[in-house]
Amino acid sequence: MKAFFSRLAKLIPQGKFGAKILLLANANILAQGLGLVFIPLLARLYDPADFGVLAAYTALISILAVGVAGRYDIAIPLASKEQEAINLAGLSLAIVIGFSLLSGVLILIWGHLFASVLNLPQLAHYLWLLPLGLLLSGVQQIFTSWSAYRHNFQALARVRVAQVLGQGVLQVILNSFGAVGLLLGFVLSRLAGSVALFRDIISRFSQISPSSWGRLAYNHRVFPVFNMWAALIDSIGLQMVPLLFAKLFSADVTGFYGLAMRVVGLPGFLVGQAVGQVFYPEASRQRGKPEAVAKLVASSATALLKLGGPIFGLLFLCGPMLFSFVFGAQWREAGEYARYLSLWLLLNFISSPLSSFVLVADKQRAALFFTIYEIMLRLLAVWGGAAMEDPKLSVILYALAGVVISAVYIGWVFRLAKVNSWHWLKTNASYIGSLLLLMAALLGFSFLVSEVAFVAIAFLGMGLLMVISWPSLRRNLDV
Q1: What is the pLDDT of residues 323-377, one digit of tens each?
Q2: How far apart are CA 52 and CA 391, in angstroms?
């Protein structure tokens, strides 16, 4: 696998923003292509309730992992010298280990009570995996930031493929154990990043100086004091939904939502995350050059729009049919959820990679207050649907809240980067209009042909739009 990515890197022009994104995106596509092979099989090996337990567990991991390193791992790509970066990694690792041990003690004391509050008593049997999951997720985050600092995107690519392949294989092999098989596959697949990080740290052991950690912690205190709480609140707003669904509805509903988010979230993982991991160190390098930063932000947003438009448009048009065909008729409702979520996730696909510019612009304090409003809006949306005892209404209201949040956030990042929002919209108006007209035309076909034919026509139409827009998309990445 290492040789494969080395050869791939040689085929890509080095030193360009788009080339680095392409390397990670190709790795993500390969990884998730492998992952997609497993999802239909897993959907038939496990019940919706098992996926509900997985969704609740991964939501807990995602929330707690935000602060597991005190956010000092996020400061690594901003380090001016390698010695500072490696010691930030060491400081982060020490915090991760301490946090994971503390979570183990708390689970031992209050684990059953916590599972009961969530209305998922079966989760109590698996909470012993939470400290291990936090440890490995925290180490993975440190590895990601360290690799971004060193511009070692080949290592990130290799680890990503190994993780997805390992998770899928383990979950298939362990299916006889029920929900625990899904959880173990998720947790143990994170070992690849841990091994890679420890190998790098050991090779630079002479540069590690624990006596410097106190000074580094103080110099970068803005990350745990402001950024961590903003990120934690944002994560709660996103990840509390499966936990609330488990509490307010049922494990089956939680499973439908969990699978929908896993599939609809793939484009963000495939490409959006790759853009974000390259964008952050690049934006940090360009700070102090207003014109270069504005061009980087605007071009990245345009590229993400043109990449995401056909993908999320297709999910809006064909979500229920695709889920029913691929995963089985029992998962059609998950496809409905995917349809409702598609518009928000398109805007989130654009805003999420650009969000790291807030760190570059040193606006963590403002981000904290922005995130408080986000979580209030998200949770009110879910509770609104729960008050009507309608999980679909909860998903729709949650998606609408996400549309508002992401649109406002994109506008804020543009303002920080001195990008004219109206000029950006006018520049992309023809593309947006073409996308909407194509979707309207395809919807007309849905009343005239069978579901299978409609899916084929929708794939053809959105694929054609992607091909037509590809030359301009490449120009946007070549910054």
Answers
A1: 888 888 888 988 899 999 998 989 988 888 777 777 777 777 777 777 777 778 8
A2: 14
Contact between residue 146 and residue 200 where contact means Cβ atoms under 8 Å apart? yes
pLDDT digits (tens, 9 = 90+) for 237-289: 667 777 777 777 877 888 888 888 877 776 666 666 666 666 666 677 767 67
Query: What is the identity of the amino acid at 384?
Result: G
Residue 417, H or E segment: none
pTM: 0.65
Question: Do residues 181 and 174 lie in contact, with contact meaning Cβ atoms separated by under 8 Å?
Answer: yes
Amino acid at 111: G
3-class DSSP state of 152 = coil
d(CA 198, CA 202): 6
Can you tell me which residue has the tokens 């064909």? Answer: 318
**HEC letters along 424-462:** HHHHCHHHHHHHHHHHHHHHHHHCCCCHHHHHHHHHHHH
Both tokens assigned to 117: 């509050």
- CA-to-CA distance for 242 and 62, rounded, in angstroms? 12
With contact defined as beta carbons under 8 Å apart, do 298 and 332 qualify? no
- The DSSP secondary-structure symbol of 12 reads S
Q: Residue 82 and residue 73: Cα distance in Å, rounded?
A: 14
Structure tokens at 293: 């930063």
